[in-house]
Amino acid sequence: MALIEIEGAVKRYGPATALDGVSLQVDAGACVALVGESGSGKTTLLRAINGLTALDEGHAHVRGEPVASLDPVALRRSIGYVQQDGGLIPHWTCLGNAALVPSLLGMADAAERGRNALDATGLDPTIFGGRYPRELSGGQRQRVAIARAVAADPDVLLMDEPFGALDAVTRFEAQEAFLALRGAAGVTAVLVTHDLAEALRIATRIAVMRAGKVVLEAASGDLSAEAREEAARGNGYAAELLKKSGVAA
Ligand code: ADP
Ligand code: MG
After folding, report:
1. What CATH fold (topology level) applies to the domain 1-78+157-249?
2. Pairing of strands 57-62, 65-66
């Protein structure tokens, strides 16, 4: 069953078309990586899924229900979201940030969930729990953002370049933590990344976006063949992107 379903999504900002007829299905338990150049509509697509952006045409369904008809606050609290810039509340401690969604949902064990989530992203809650975001490195802040997104155990997780600010070693560890989490919780995820190697490593499917369209979509394992096909059809950008990442010959 598709847990996330987008059909003919169009979003315009004045003369600019951020989404130009995107259709995408994400099956329960799958992880789709969105890759593509800056401005291709990746963030807009994520925001259409959790109702932060209203579509001009087409529709998005989550768990079989149209996003446009759902209570936006309840929908957002039910979906884990790592914003591109982290989006932490600066005057709240890391624990306050990590426990935000469980608290909003009225969970009695909100603080414990926040601590566990920090721990799961590699931040010792006894050391980092009481610190403020400004007292952390970029990579540590990004981990808090990930902790906040998973603390309430959402079945759907949207992550916008979550590992972008991390150094190579931390990045690898964060990817490992994410893989373990996906395996254990069976969470359904959409992950934006500009790193195709990362996409191939942790996603089950890859969707390449360009100028508001999905120009290539394939299971991670089939990507090289698809990419070659795409190149033969003259889609230079997808081919170039895949070649640069060492995916396609
Ligand atoms: P990506 O995440 O792939 O870099 P975005 O989804 O952020 O791309 O943006 C897609 C296009 O829509 C860009 O041209 C961007 O400038 C435009 N856009 C996105 N959000 C807004 C907004 N709130 N107002 C105006 N234009 C926007
Ligand atoms: Mg973006």
Report:
1. Rossmann fold (3.40.50)
2. antiparallel
Atom of ligand 1 at shortest range from CA of 36: 3
Q: Please state, in angstroms and rounded to a whole number, the distance separating the CA atoms of residues 22 and 206.
A: 14
Question: What is the domain partition of the chain in residue ranges?
Answer: 1-78+157-249, 86-153
pTM for the structure as a whole? 0.89
In this structure, the residue with its CA closest to atom 15 of ligand 1 is: 39
Distance CA 119, CA 150 (A): 12
Q: Sign (positive/negative) of CA torsion 239, 243, 248, 249? A: positive
pLDDT of residue 86: 82
Point out the ligand 1 atom lying closest to the alpha carbon of residue 19.
10
CA 29 to ligand 2 center in whole angstroms: 23
Q: Which ligand is nearest to the CA of 52?
A: 1
- The secondary structure of residue 139, as a DSSP letter, is H
Beta strands across the sheet bearing 65-66:
16-27, 2-13, 57-62, 65-66
Smallest Cα–Cα separation from 119: which of 127, 108, 110, 109? Answer: 127
For residue 12, the ligand closest to its alpha carbon is: 1
Task: Calculate the CA 114 to chain-centre distance.
Answer: 20
pLDDT digits (tens, 9 = 90+) for 122-179: 899 999 999 999 999 888 898 899 999 999 999 999 999 988 777 777 788 778 878 8
49, 79 contact by CB (below 8 A): yes
